[in-house]
Design brief:
seven-stranded mixed sheet, 216 residues, Rossmann fold, two-stranded antiparallel sheet, single chain, 9 strands, alpha/beta
Length: 216
Amino acid sequence: MFSLEQFYQAYETETAEFVIKAKKFNILLPRYLYRFINPTDMLHDFPLWAKIWKASWVLSGYLADLQPDVNKRLLEIGGGVGLVSIVAATFGHKITMTEYNADALNFARANACLNQCPDLPIKKLDWNHPSLRGRFDLIVASEVIYREEDFSPLIRLFKSNVKPGGEIILASEIRKSGKDLFGLFQSDFDIFVVKKTLRSETDATTVVLLKMRLKN
């Protein structure tokens, strides 16, 4: 059983605050990354989960604005430290969060407890060998498209686990890997693209939401 006390004993953390639809969320992040990096191969399994990506912030806001339906099941893959699923659950969605990295899962569980979502289902999921029960009305993910070797497992997972007529939403900043995967998706999915721009005093970042449904 997960223990918040044991979590604090195991990890050094810092807290980031996010405000979504006037509601504050306090999210624990690793204070240092060195313990999660292999010094002999820094690019292998780099802890991409250990920060809140702008795409995750945009996806969280999208789900907060989406009318919840208790009869619909949502699934998040590659959930990292848990922001998206925590926001979705807070705004009434029935969502299951999944992640593969064990440390990320611990942070997600801690964040769920801190943000009054102790009953949020948080599960380990290997995209290459998924063990999900049933199908989902909506599958969401943010910034999961980096490695070409993940493309085929992702497509198989989506096709196997989205309900007929269900939707998949992928959020990411614009990069080449996303464009490559977009080309692969087009043969199996109808795709609608929504662009969101996050602006600050110093810059602007465009985040793309790929909204996809399996072709008939």
